[in-house]
């Protein structure tokens, strides 16, 4: 129904930057929101940043001022620009979208995740 393709993860030194991308495809009627979640080893998955169709943005406190979420509505794509990375940002980052698909109620869809590792 909806496929999410994430890219941009990798290994970076503390203080460095990475840019994650996520493209949504499928029988999409409309995307209501897109978000990046992350899950560190031994921890619960948490919302890192989200952006709605109307442009409302939310960040978890730990990334405010360092991460920037943006989206290209025409391309069904969301980006996460990560700067001043810290070892505690190490996690698998998952793209999530709340979307309306033809013939299906509004639902959440998840990507496979991309690993971000920040070395000290």
Note the topology.
Layout: E1 2-7, E2 10-13, E3 18-26, E4 28-39, E5 46-52, E6 57-59, E7 67-72, E8 77-82, E9 91-101, E10 104-110, E11 114-119
Parallel strand pairs: 2-11
Antiparallel strand pairs: 1-3, 3-8, 4-5, 4-9, 5-6, 7-8, 9-10, 9-11
Protein described:
With 120 residues, the protein is mostly beta strands. Helices cover 0% and strands 64% of the residues. It is built from no helices and eleven strands. The chain has strands spanning 2-7, 10-13, 18-26, 28-39, 46-52, 57-59, 67-72, 77-82, 91-101, 104-110, 114-119. The strands form two sheets. Strands 2, 4, 5, 6, 9, 10 and 11 form a seven-stranded mixed β-sheet that branches. It is elongated. The chain starts with a strand and ends with a strand. The mean pLDDT is 96.
Summary keywords:
seven-stranded mixed β-sheet; mainly beta; 120 residues; 11 strands; four-stranded antiparallel β-sheet
Q: Which geometry do the CA atoms define?
A: elongated
Q: Which structural class should the secondary elements be placed in?
A: mainly beta
- Give the low-pLDDT segments: none
What is the CA-atom radius of gyration, in angstroms?
14 Å
Quantity of strands, as a count: 11
Summarize the amount of helix as a percent range: under 10%
């Amino acid at each position: 129904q909806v496929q999410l393709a994430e890219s941009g993860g990798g290994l970076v030194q503390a203080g460095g930057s990475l840019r994650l991308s996520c493209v949504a495809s499928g029988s999409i009627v409309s995307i209501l929101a897109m978000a990046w979640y992350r899950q560190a080893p031994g921890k619960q998955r948490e919302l890192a940043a989200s952006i709605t169709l109307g442009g409302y943005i939310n960040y978890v406190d730990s990334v405010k001022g360092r991460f920037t979420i943006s989206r290209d509505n025409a391309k069904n794509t969301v980006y996460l620009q990560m700067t001043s990375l810290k070892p505690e940002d190490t996690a698998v980052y998952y793209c999530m979208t709340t979307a309306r698909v033809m013939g299906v109620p509004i639902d959440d869809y998840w990507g496979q995740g991309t690993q971000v590792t920040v070395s000290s």
